[in-house]
Amino acid sequence: MGKPINVGIIGCGAIIAQYLATFQRLEAIELVAVADLDPVRAQAVADANDGVRAQTVDGLITADDVDLVLNLTIPAAHAGVALKAIAAGKSVYGEKPLAATTAEARQVLNAAEAAGVAVGCAPDTVLGTGIQTARKAIDDGLIGPPISATATMVTPGHERWHPNPDFYYQPGGGPLLDMGPYYVSALVTLLGPVVSVTGAASHTRAERTIGSGVREGEVIPVSIDSHVTGVLTHEGGALSTLVMSFDAVRTKASNIEVHGERGSLAIPDPNLFDGDVELFTLGADSWQTLPVSAGYIDSGRGFGIADLALTPPGEEPRAGGRLAYHVLEVMESVLDSARTGVVVPIQSRASRPDPVQLTASPEESRPQPVSS
């Protein structure tokens, strides 16, 4: 309380650059150590950042000056790293998803509760001005009671640009588990928790050809469904239709639209932190762009960690583990429904995270503790 939270990062892949850029802007976070299975990568990050040391994974987890472990490993390793950190008394914040399965994610949440440490998880894009301005518009009644939403993400496939796309087409990959956390987290933030889902899925090709890098031209197998559609029933009665595809080419529709009795909202890409929110009201002649009215201004990956650091003890962070678990269960259940053809009830409940007032940083949005 009253001082920055010391963070150690495990996993020094491409995504770390975005976190490092954000940390330089946030007083609530002090990066002290990094680790990676490839020690050369960890040392390169340490050399480029003053006051940061490179360590082994186990050494970082047990370091006395690390308060929170930021887990940027591959999804299959998320639960194992988180459980080790929790066992060492550290809070954890991970890249999405919280774990590879809900069974593993439940172990993480249970262990954290027993240890009295906090759990947070990406995406924290929902804390930016895009989703938060849309949420405020809904909460202020600008569209009336929400009736439905659509969330669409289509791309012809990551193999066109990614040099090692194998994971995306193996179990645990696919468009829903890869990009769904952004869209489902946004839908829960906007419309509340999900109580049941129905899903359908398909795939168009048994093989994909890598389009870039040293493996360009190599053919890889596809062992997952690459086009997934789901219908989510929210606790408040709204229905969301989710389309996630590695098969289609492009969409002209808004990434997310929310429709109510008195109007509709076009909402920006939930993979980003900002963007225009447009409103079309009953009887209007055209869409109007709403002024930015809520969310962290100019935010970036890592704002969720600062928000966690400043969350009062006993309260759930906005980008918290319970929300991440709920989102993971929703996605798993959509895929289960696609396999079985039945409606799947959602067992978990995650309250809508507290709204974010329009502000520059988490430090300004929370009452500041008094140093002793």
Q: What is the count of β-strands?
A: 17
> What is the spatial order of strands in the main beta sheet?
16-15-14-13-7-12-11-8-17
Helix content: 25-40%
Indicate the overall shape. Answer: globular
Secondary-structure class:
alpha/beta
- Reading off the top of the CATH hierarchy, the class of the largest domain is best stated as Alpha Beta
Structure overview:
The protein has 372 residues and is of the alpha/beta class. The protein has 2 domains: 5-121, Rossmann fold, CATH 3.40.50; 126-289, Dihydrodipicolinate Reductase, domain 2 (2-Layer Sandwich). Helix content is 29%, strand content 23%. It has 10 helices and 17 strands. The chain has helices at residues 16-23, 39-48, 57-61, 75-87, 102-115, 129-139, 175-191, 303-309, 321-340, 362-365, and strands spanning 5-10, 29-35, 53-55, 68-71, 91-94, 119-121, 146-154, 194-202, 207-209, 219-221, 227-234, 239-245, 256-260, 263-267, 278-281, 288-289, 344-345. The strands form 3 sheets. A 9-stranded mixed β-sheet has the order 16-15-14-13-7-12-11-8-17. α4 (75-87) runs parallel beside α5 and α6 packs across α7 (175-191). The longest helix is centred in the last third of the chain and has 20 residues, at 321-340.
